[in-house]
Amino acid sequence: MILGIDLGKKTTGLAISTGTIASPLKTITHQSLGESVDIISKIADEEKIEKVILGYVEGKIKPYFQMFAQKLKEKNPNLEIILWDETLTSRHATETMIKLQVPKLKRQKRQHEIAAALILQSYLENV
After folding, report:
1. Total domains present in the chain
2. Which domain holds residue 101?
3. Mean per-residue pLDDT for 16-34?
């Protein structure tokens, strides 16, 4: 099983794949990087995750993603963690939901897990 992550400072989207198709899993909220690591570690254990595809953005915020990856690896040494460029996935997720006529309130709630699915799908199509 592979877990895709659209990591945010307070809200993080998760997606999952057992083969060639990524599916949105859930959106979690957290107060800190450590709390997000704890929640995702528990989910990874429950879902029998072997590999994590962590979306990241180049620039000043990139160390935030690297720190998350390091902490997640420390807590879960058997997980393979791959950083994957997620540039514009949140915008793409929103545009897709608008085209599908998803109401605004539902779009806001699901944007991050849809973005995580786009990140994971991008990885699956390029490996």
Report:
1. 1
2. 2-126
3. 94
- Spatial distance between the Cα atoms of 97 and 73, rounded to a whole number of angstroms: 33
Q: DSSP string covering 20-69, please? A: S--EEEEEEE-SSHHHHHHHHHHHHHHTT--EEEEEE-SSTTHHHHHHHH
Residue pair 13/101 in contact (Cβ under 8 Å)? The answer is: no
The residues that bridge with 80 in the sheet, in sequence order, are 51
pLDDT of 127: 82
Predicted structure pTM score: 0.86
Mean pLDDT, residues 56-85: 93
The CATH code of the domain that includes 68 is 3.30.420.140
Return the DSSP state at 13. E
